[in-house]
Amino acid sequence: MIFLAMDDTDVLGSRGTGKLARSVGASLADQYTIQGISRHQLFVHEAIPFTSHNSCAVLHICTSGRENAKHIFSLAKEIMLNDFIEGSDPGITVAEEHQITPALVAYGYEAKKSVLNQEMARSLAADLGITLQGLGGTEDGVIGAMAGLGLASTQNDGRYIMKGTIRDLLGPTPAEILLKAGIDQIITMDGEEIHNGTIFVREGKSVKPCPVEGKAVLFVEKRDDGRLHAIKRN
Fold this sequence. Notes:
- By secondary structure, this protein is of the alpha+beta class.
- The chain folds into 2 domains: 2-159, Alpha-Beta Plaits, CATH 3.30.70.2200; 168-230, no CATH class.
- 29% of the residues lie in helices and 25% in strands.
- The chain has 6 helices and 12 strands.
- It has helices spanning 17-28, 66-82, 102-110, 118-128, 141-153, 175-181, and strands spanning 2-7, 34-41, 55-61, 91-96, 131-134, 159-162, 173-174, 185-188, 198-200, 210-212, 215-222, 228-230.
- A hairpin with a 2-residue loop joins β10 (210-212) and β11.
- α1 crosses α2 (66-82), α3 (102-110) crosses α5 and α4 (118-128) packs across α5.
- It is globular, with a radius of gyration of 18 Å.
- The chain starts with a strand and ends with a strand.
């Protein structure tokens, strides 16, 4: 597995980092299998400049090898530079699975609760032989991009913003169809596994499953209307 992470690519009123990540994923899909794209929530603090929610995006790419990683980085970097938004501070990084050590995972979790800096991110990348670059502005996006690598590698953080064909399914959708579209399990907050029935989500929106122990799990809850509603979790 190769992970490609990006952060701080947008400004208020522009397309978000998630949309850019999906655009990069669509371009890479001509040559590689994209296992999914995940969103990871980072620390929200007045000392951290962010657009709206301070989250980063990570592409999970089913391939390996140094040359593939270099090629993926080059293609993604070109797309990001061509779609650079003035006022943004983007960062991009790519790593093979074996490069992601416990130290990088710990850095990712620390980024969810503390204010970190570029020096820490760049130093860690250099120590691990990971390619990390800022692509404009203050380049603060390198901080969240490195955090994204660590968090995504756990397969147990954040939520998927692209998985299989679930983004094509908008509004209320039968569980059976969701389970064929890329979701591995649908589970209530009480632990009951759901195999059939309609899963409700706001019209025009798709469900957002979470990585849990390597599976794409959609959490749902039964509300007062008696229906099963999808829950969007960080």
